Amino acid sequence: MTFACLGLVVTLPICYKEHSFLSWACFVAKTKRVYQCTACGSEQSKWAGQCPDCKAWNTIEEFRLPAGNATRFGNYSGAGEQSVTRLSAVEGEALQRQATGISELDRVLGGGLVPGSVVLIGGDPGIGKSTLILQAVARMTEQYDCLYVTGEESLQQIGLRARRLELVTDRLDCLTETCVERVLSTIARNRPGLVVIDSIQTLYSAEIQSAPGSVSQVRESAAALVRYAKENRCTMIIVGHVTKEGALAGPRVLEHMVDAVLYFESDSGSRYRIVRSFKNRFGTVNEIGVFAMTGTGLKQVSNPSAIFLSGRDEPAAGSIVTVTREGTRPLLLELQALVDDSHLANPRRVALGLEHNRLAMLLAVLHRHGGVSLAGQDVFVNIVGGLRIAETGTDLPVLLAILSSFRDRPLPHHVLAFGEVGLSGEIRPVFNGEERLREAAGHGFTRAIVPAANAPRRTLEKLQVIKVNTLPEALEAAFQ
Ligand code: TYD
Ligand code: MG
After folding, report:
1. 128: Cβ below 6 Å to ligand 1?
2. How does pLDDT run across 138-193, given as a tens digit for each residue?
3. What are the pLDDT digits (tens) for 39-93?
């Protein structure tokens, strides 16, 4: 009896609270007001000074929806019924890809553009998005009707750039327009096979009141474009800028809407540009295409393996070469570490191109299983060339580079290493080990320190493979 009473006392306020919340939500729905964060795009039920999702301050704004829309996603109450289709009855046609004529770009796309797909290309301002797309589209006009929609540059600017890049543009249509409805009606009239939108941040929809570039404008404009592309099998390339924090301005929601997301990566000051696929519904992800920015546009680098090495002849302390696998090809690159006495209470751990938490973990493994403590030292690790590596094969070379810098002992020339380091100090194999070793041998490396399970079945000419099972074994092999 006492429990029942207690239960009633507890449930009543909850019911009351839920009821009041429901009636309040109905009120919001009727008045069609939405509170949205302009930084991350999340929707909130009420205004707040700080966004509960991304923690940004003063970014929540009130939006009023156009009349007739009960929610931001449309009013479904009066929607008609649709017939469903058995999947086995759907005719699968062979995927015919539209080659862009730039093989490095085709590689990242998984073999070319899929008709009716929407590709988002992101990157910092000035990195070369417009240049690359203009070069690709100009080549594609030989086979397809293409329309280049620009909201950023004038037609004269694009014309000048095309002339500088020595492109054939007599079949390329251009349009300067920023209203998405007018863009779509022009596309519907001309019916091109490929449309480029440069850039999505400049587009606005007349149905939404917020400013161009705001989250809701970017989202609605992209949604309208994607809808059109899917319904009419029109291929689209959408260019998007990146915010200072590194996220596609407006929204991660864009990434969910499109079929493929490509990102430009580069070291500031480097002339190399890496285009990486982060999402691809029609190909592998993490595939990279490498380009060099020249006076006449972006030139592809078909064999990029050696460009990420610093090219120094003398071995230097804190530097080591490793082989990673980016997408479907192995890539040689150089890792550098600097270990220095720290004057801070919390010594610095900086990882450029690598995951920060992984560096902290590796330092703990080095202490526990390698017997080397870097407690009073600042540790900096960098990947030459501005590449970002997410795979675990760089664990062992990172530790060797750190130790080389700490002891001020250069690793011998023509030595490379790869392998994952486990928490108990074991060296674990990585995938495609043999292919990596063959690539290294092809570039003149003579010694490789690798996980035992990655040793090739047949010995490689000129490359001595040193198999290691634990971290102490690896340290001994490197610094014997
Ligand atoms: P752009 O494609 O306009 O960048 P985005 O569209 O990503 O903002 O690239 C502009 C930069 O590229 C600019 O800094 C100049 C450089 N560039 C060259 O070095 N060579 C060239 O042939 C071209 C067209 C641009
Ligand atoms: Mg541009």
Report:
1. yes
2. 999 998 999 999 998 999 999 999 999 999 989 999 999 999 999 999 999 999 99
3. 777 788 889 999 888 888 888 888 776 555 444 455 555 556 778 888 888 776 6
Q: Is the CB of 269 under 6 A from ligand 1?
A: no
Q: Is 161 in the pocket of ligand 1 (CB under 6 A)?
A: yes
Q: Could you check whether 103-302 and 307-478 share the same CATH topology?
A: no
In 32-154, alpha helices (H): 103-109, 129-140
Task: Write down the domain spans for the chain.
Answer: 2-71, 103-302, 307-478
- Residue 196 forms beta bridges with which residues? 148, 237
- Give the position, in ligand 1's atom list, of the atom nearest the Cα of 198: 6
Quote the pTM value: 0.75
Mutate to test the pocket of ligand 1, among 132, 293, 299, 300 (most ligand atoms within 8 A of CB): 293
Q: Tokens at residue 123, please?
A: 């990157």
The class (CATH top level) of 307-478 is alpha beta
Looking from the CA of residue 128, the nearest atom of ligand 1 is: 2
Any idea which fold 103-302 has? Rossmann fold (3.40.50)
Pairing of strands 60-64, 194-198: unpaired
Instruction: Name the least confident of 64-68, 152-156, 201-205, 274-278.
Output: 64-68
| Of 379, 473, 396, 477, the residue nearest 433 (C-alpha) | 396
Give residue-wise pLDDT tens across range 317-342: 999 999 998 877 888 999 999 999 99
Residue with CA nearest ligand 1 atom 1: 128
Q: Read off the tokens for 427.
A: 């060296």
